[in-house]
Amino acid sequence: MQLDAAAPRGQLRRRLGAAACALLAAGLPSAARAEATGDWQLDGSLLLYGERDRASVFEPVARISRLFDNGHRLSGEFAYDAISGASPTGALPSGQVQTTTTPSGNTVTIAAGAVPTVLFRDDRYAADLEWQAPLARTARATITGHFSSEKDYLSRGGSASIALDMFQRLLTVTAGAGVNADEVMPVGGTRVGLGDGTQMLATGTNPKDVTSGMLGVTRVITRRWLVGLTGSFESERGYLTEPYKVVSLVDPVTQEVSGQLTEKRPDTRERKSLQVSSVYHLSEDILYLSYRAYRDDWRVESSTGDVRYRFELADGRYLLPHVRYYAQHAASFYVAGLVAGEPLPAYASADYRLGPLRTATLGLTYGFHAGSLPGTVSLRGEYMRQWLANPSGGDGEGGDDARAGGVQLAGTATAAALTSVSGTPPLHIATLLAGYSVNF
Amino acid sequence: MDGTAGHGAGNETLPPAPITLTRGEDFWCGRFRAMGGPCEVLVDTDDRAEAAGLVACAEEEARRVEAKFSRYRAGNILHRIQHAMGAPVEVDEETANVLDYAALTHEMSGGRFDITSGVLRRVWTFDGGDRVPDDAAVHATLALVGWEKATWRRPVLTLSAGMEIDLGGIGKEYAVDRAGALLAARTECSVLVNFGGDLWAPGPRHGDRPWGVGIDDPERTGEAVLDRVELTRGGLATSGDARRFVRWQGKRLGHILDPRTGWPVEGAPRAVTVVAGTCLEAGTLSTLAILEGAGAEEFLRAQGVVYRIHS
After folding, report:
1. Under an 8 A CB cutoff, do B92 and A312 touch?
2. Is A70's Cβ below 8 Å from some Cβ in B?
3. What CATH code is carried by the domain that includes residue A66?
4. Angstroms from B231 CA to nearest CA on chain A
């Protein structure tokens, strides 16, 4: 007999018998009804997000889900965001004091050399419902609904997806589709694109419809290694312009900002992305890697690399450092500014989020059990630095960025505008998240 | 464990049948279906109301354990573990105790008793036919087998994605012992708990008599009693099932798989019955005996337990 060769046989039975008794003695006899399967799960979190000298966000989120005996799961998530602070209008900093008009008609004075921003405050309420249903032992369906509302934006959407396990569950295929019917209601009315901000469209409510689809495959490669590939597309139709963003007009002679126009974007956008991810279990720790490639027909192209490593510590604690890098080629109509007096392009936006944006993120999450409290507490801190790549090639990304940096500007004004762009200070962002998760 | 008196791995959603109470010659017998098979509770009393209460209590415990540990119930702790896709899962106290027991048994058996081996059933079909899976399928599945690949740090279990645990080799015996202990705390009468052929009794019946247990012929369940044993105190369990096998190269391979090879144990008896201190211990010893293959009898003799081997 090869069982536990070092031990005499009678000892096997004694140990087994003792272990069986220990198992049965635990919690007898009154515990028959003390069932702690934890059909309910509650996740709560509090997010604090702050951009230095810019916007800050305070967001409490509560998610509650219930797992039913038949395997169905119903989840509801409720979030409230309080966003306040200053958002760049898109106008260039200027050597002179500038005056900007806000949509509500107030005038704001911007100090010389500062990035023009507009102060705002918004409250957003969001509710999401999700229903997961097992269809068979190897298939699951998920249906979601979404609603969110803020003073100038309303979002309603839904999605459905199905996941199939194949080849002894070594392969899972997921396919899904979604629709969103949003409405943009700019405060003070909808301004005509590439206008001086005083001409209004008759429509105060502007529809924006989104349809999306995804197809994903997850494959177990070895017992320790799981890889996934997900492709998705999204088609947007309607009002895609940012209602409060502007584009500066630069005087070709003085190289000073001489005025500004509202921005204007195309009314369709087709987005595609492909993501590869890998989860590798070391003996105890876990390494997560992912890479995402994205492109759309506004010619924004981006790459995102993400690395996380979960260190398992004693007593169920863990430490999870996180590094992420994002690089984007600017949209075809991204400009730093327009030359006053030149013919206007069809579309133009100076929104830095459509520019040659780079974002680097460093984060650390620590998870632990808090004393006798059931469940897990996690604390996450993240630092993000956002900047625009130097359009003159300093970032080495070449063509698109140079175009985006403002080749629309002629002559000496180009140089002035470029200087302004590259002189835009990097944005520093800090995020703190406290989360708590418990089954009951 | 699959007992000779009944098994039924495929019964996913049997509606809870009512309890039927019948009078035996000098005891009351309650019957119901749970854990995929017929269950019986014999109560050594003339008091029908007392017997009914005890049977109901045993039935409730059987359903509780079944709901909690069955791999067929979407939504229970096993379901959560199965669908964690590699994420750690914190389990409750009772599940943790069961996992501790499984971990110890795995260690003592040199890896042969393994609650992660259930995934091998995806590639094996024990229908008496001659289909065996190809080596590639067995190898691919073996990648998902092995308790040593799991990280068990009470109360947190982390399985690699794709791995599963199956408490089929523990759950029914555990339920028998649990129900027995609950009844023993409620009555002075002797009882015999029989969940699908796995049994437990707290002590002798009136007049210091044992319970007589007939062991079914594994080939003809319910038709012929192959053997009889007497059970006074402790547990009795049977592993193996003569109706679930596959033929390969002229050999008959039973359904108990060796998690180290992914293949059925060769030369194993068709079924092994063991009497031990608890039903759980009896069930584990009978499974370990079958995993010994041709060495089953030698193994059982060395343990100093009462046993029956059905070849």
Report:
1. no
2. yes
3. 2.40.160
4. 18
Nearest to A9 among B162, B276, B303 (CB): B303
pLDDT score recorded for residue B246: 81
Q: Which residues of A touch B15 (CB under 8 A)?
A: none
Share of chain B above pLDDT 70, in %: 90
Q: What does the pLDDT read at residue B196?
A: 86
Once rounded to an integer, what is the mean pLDDT over residues B260-287? 91
Average pLDDT estimate for B162-174: 88
- Distance (Å, rounded) from C-alpha A57 to C-alpha A81? 7
Long-range own/partner contacts, residues A275-280 (CB < 8 A, 24 or more apart) = A275/A228, A275/A229, A275/A230, A275/A231, A275/A232, A276/A227, A276/A228, A276/A229, A277/A227, A277/A228, A277/A229, A277/A230, A278/A225, A278/A226, A278/A227, A278/A228, A279/A225, A279/A226, A279/A227, A279/B86, A279/B161, A280/A224, A280/A225, A280/A226
Q: Are A277 and A305 in contact (CB under 8 A)?
A: no
Q: CA B59: distance to chain centroid? A: 17
Helix (H, G, I), strand (E, B) or coil at A402: helix
Q: Which residues in chain A have their CB less than 8 angstroms from residue B144's CB?
A: 170, 220, 223
Q: What is the mean pLDDT of residues B293-311?
A: 89
Minimal Cα–Cα distance from B224 to chain A, Å?
31
- Cβ distance B153 to B137 under 8 Å? no
Q: pLDDT tier at B4 (50, 70, 90 boundaries)?
A: very low
Nearest to A32 among B64, B156, B302 (CB): B64
Q: Does residue A36 form part of some domain?
A: no
DSSP state of A336: S
For residue A6, is it within any domain?
no
Range of the domain at A141: 42-439
pLDDT single digits (tens) B116-125: 998 888 888 8
Handedness of CA B260, B261, B267, B273 (dihedral sign): positive
Assessment of whether the complete model's pTM goes beyond 0.90 = no
pLDDT of residue A97: 59
User: What averages of pLDDT result for each successive group of 10 residues across chain A (440 residues)?
Assistant: 46 81 65 47 88 86 84 90 82 64 52 71 92 83 95 94 82 93 91 87 91 92 82 96 88 83 95 93 83 96 95 83 96 90 91 92 91 83 89 42 39 44 70 87
* Phi (first) and psi of residue A115, to 5 degrees: -75, 120
Total residue count of chain A as it appears in this document = 440
Residue A20, domain member (yes or no): no
pLDDT of A68 reads 78
Q: Which residue of A has its CA nearest to B90?
A: A375
Q: Give the pLDDT score at B175.
A: 95
Please give the pLDDT value at position B179: 94
Buried b (16+ CB within 10 A) or exposed e, A321-354: ebebebbbbbbbbbbbbbbbeeeeeebbbbbbbb
B227 touches chain A (CB under 8 A): no
Distant-in-sequence, close-in-space partners of B110: CB < 8 Å, separation ≥ 6: A2, A3, A4, A5
Taking the CB of residue B12, how many other CB atoms lie within 10 A of it? 11
The pair of three-digit structure tokens given for residue A178, joined into one six-digit string: 């979604």
pLDDT top residue among A150 and B18 = A150
With beta carbons less than 8 A apart as the criterion, state whether B114 and B141 touch.
no
Which residues 224-263 of chain A have a CB within 8 Å of chain B? 224, 226
Contact B61 A68 (CB under 8 A): no
Instruction: Give a yes or no: residue A238 inside a domain.
Output: yes
Backbone angles phi, psi at B188, to 5 degrees: -90, -15
Looking at the 3D structure of chain A, how many domains does it have?
Answer: 1
